Hints:
By secondary structure, the chain is of the alpha/beta class. It has helices at about 1-30, 280-290, 305-315, 330, 335-355, 375-385, 410-420, 435-450; strands at about 35-40, 45-50, 60-65, 75-80, 90-100, 100-110, 120, 140-145, 150, 155-160, 160-170, 175-180, 190-195, 200, 210-215, 220, 225-230, 240-245, 255-260, 270-275, 295-300, 320-325, 360, 390, 395-400, 425-430, 450-455. Helix 2 (about 280-290) packs parallel to helix 8. The protein is rod-shaped, with a radius of gyration of 59 Å.
Amino acid sequence: xxxxxxxxxxxxxxxxxxxxxxxxxxxxxxxxxxxxxxxxxxxxxxxxxxxxxxxxxxxxxxxxxxxxxxxxxxxxxxxxxxxxxxxxxxxxxxxxxxxxxxxxxxxxxxxxxxxxxxxxxxxxxxxxxxxxxxxxxxxxxxxxxxxxxxxxxxxxxxxxxxxxxxxxxxxxxxxxxxxxxxxxxxxxxxxxxxxxxxxxxxxxxxxxxxxxxxxxxxxxxxxxxxxxxxxxxxxxxxxxxxxxxxxxxxxxxxxxxxxxxxxxxxxxxxxxxxxxxxxxxxxxxxxxxxxxxxxxxxxxxxxxxxxxxxxxxxxxxxxxxxxxxxxxxxxxxxxxxxxxxxxxxxxxxxxxxxxxxxxxxxxxxxxxxxxxxxxxxxxxxxxxxxxxxxxxxxxxxxxxxxxxxxxxxxxxxxxxxxxxxxxxxxxxxxxxxxxxxxxxxxxxxxxxxxxxxxxxxxxxxxxxxxxxxx
Length: 470
Ligand SMILES: [Zn+2]
């Protein structure tokens, strides 16, 4: 009973195991068990040159159709490197194994350069381009991460007030940069005063503008646009400021100031005049006059020192006609004779000075009586010279140096006494006399110390005419 009961259970047990094994075999076979490696991300991907490439990796799966999650995922190992510092294609192999299964996958990583070069523009502070001018390059640098310095390959062009820079690297990536050109004209016109920035104007004399120029780097000649402002009263002594201003088309303004000093009202005006020269004393006289900066008037004769006439004019003195011969009987014989003599002397003056004189002094003065051998000749001549465009000058102060005295002290005294009595003095002296030249320095000092103004005669001056007595 015990044996019989024991044999039956044993048979069922074996049969059950056989059936279970058969079922597992069927399930395994029908489930197509497999090991798979799956990439994370794309199978073909790119990496940027020079940048770190992160491998997204891969994962493995083991399972079958009917029992997918029976076993944990086996580990995946990878092989192959990606060098992002060298362009090209790289393979990364992923593999896994489990039991007698093994699987793999491959990823292609393409190292590429899609980064354009960088253009750096340099700028100098305060730099500018004149309107209409060509921009002067301040400098630039083109750098590519792969190709390095591409500065030499930069193409630049200037248009519509901009500079455009372009450069392309070996991989065909193009960079572009532009610079706005700063147009400016900070340079003001140059205002130049003719005659200097300080002028001394003798009291009472009208101011004549000596002129000015204004030149601009962009606009050229702006002289016509200069404005002059400032009041000036020639009859009120003092310093006056004249303001000259001009502006260019970029509003750069220039201003210069001229100071005009109107001298104090003089005690009087003195015209020192010298007849009957040049002589051997005249050069000494010129030296003394030059020492004091005083200008006088010479009524000249043809006595053998004609070259000195040129020196007189060159030094700024006035030159007038006295006579070629100074021979009363010859020159006052007729009007024709007088004018022949005058013309002869004026030709000499012209030769020495380059211009004819229009001021004259009659030998003996217009009031002379020595010409009475020809009645009325002075009446006729005083009219005739004016008709011919001359002005004749007599005097209201005489030094008496041509007969009255040969003493320099007396010459000095006569002159200063005469000057003291007149507001405007025309003083008769002779540079043919040594005592006159000896007296002249003291006369000049006295005039200057006492506030007299010493001037040269011209055609429009007070002429101190005498009464004609023939
Ligand atoms: Zn004379």
